[in-house]
Amino acid sequence: MTTVTTNLTARAAELLAAMGAEVPEGGDLTAISPITGEPLARLAADDAASVEAKITAAHEAFATWRTTPAPVRGAMVYELGQLLRQHKAALGELVSIEAGKIRSEGLGEVQEMIDICDLAVGQSRQLFGLTIASERPGHRMMEQWHPLGVVGVISAFNFPVAVWSWNAALALICGDPVVWKPSENANLTAIATHALARQAAEAAGAPVEVVQLILGGREVGEQLVRDERVALVSATGSSRMGHEVAPVVAARFGRCLLELGGNNAAIVAPSADLELAVRGIVFSAAGTAGQRCTTLRRVIVHEDIADELIERLRAAYSTLPIGSPLEESTLVGPLIDQRAYEGYAAALKSAVSAGGTIHAGGSRVAADEHPDAYYVEPAVVELPEQVELMHTETFAPLLYVVRYRDFDDAIAMNNAVPQGLSSSCFTLDVREAELFTSAAGSDCGIANVNIGPSGAEIGGAFGGEKETGGGRESGSDAWRAYMRRSTSTVNYSTELPLAQGVTFG
Ligand code: UN1
Q: Cα(158) to centroid of ligand 1, in Å?
């Protein structure tokens, strides 16, 4: 594997300074680079009083932000997009340093932020409701979409800044201030992004209070989730986290937008273009070191082509360059931390006990050189059937393979897990492709044909069903989650006819 020689701590500080970020140094939060396991900075966490003050500031800013015309609000998001373009290289590199993503994916993450800013700027002129035919003469019935209130964003380490932007860009144009609680593993990228967001507000003449950042552990997130002024909690992370957040928000009749675990499959049918399928599978399963919620975790392959596919996967996996994500040639960077490695090792062990055969990978690498960093070989494990272990999401590059005979059984296996984020099918048979994407096909929020389950673009609504939580972010009409609908009936006649033909007096 390739080695790291740069001083990551100095480089991170340089990048933060270049983006105009002030780092709240000297507390108990440690920012660590998964590339080496070395500490990058010690940061001060928010306490209950500062969280309270920040939510209050956001809530107060709502009073003016909600009546600022939406296209004017869009000007702030336009400025943010421009700043992200300007600082794409710096923020992308910081993502690589703090989250361990390879350079191309670090830059891709920032591009995804730019894309959602572009989408949101256009959307700021398209926040429309319907006019609906009234049954009463001289009456007009219409709906309007109004700003909702403060939006709390809880994000995960793996898309440390893009997840905030999918929410924030839309929330801001919808008239909602945003309070962000990033992953404890990704505070520096959050600090940098927050600095850019504040600069964008200043450049656009918007109140800087519409963006707030709170750093800390679980208690900080809990305070955000409990606060009744937070009208919408948008939380990205594990299904376990969603199980904790959703009831608390529901108990106060707040709104939740949940993007939780995925357990995404690819069906590979006999007609598949295998060359293309292998490329799609390797990117989706081993890319981002298996740490996307859209990562491919299960291949369901037709028995007639299973041996050939496995052989091709074995060959492709044997040449995957693992190492520092800062090296241009690397395709697989580190896992985020020791716990992630333990999850990978434990799942592999369980797979073998369940009768699994390891066809590729399966070991930790470079442990001597980097005892505090966790690099692993992406693994391919074949199982005799879809065993219980395959129903859980292990956030690591671990790909399970099972064989199928009937396409209907393959769809049933795709749907048999508790999660419902993404799915894909490699086939050149139009009937299979259409069935897979139909109401009787994949039960996931995303159903792709001839591409893997990961790497969605911003124009579509992103999210999934079942334990994935049901939320939708980004494109299509996802903006509506950040607004409240008001239905107004206006009587411009001199009579007072009642609906449903009711007479009164
Ligand atoms: C995530 O892993 O949290 O579709 C989101 C994708 C990315 C988003 C992943 N656009 O893979």
A: 9
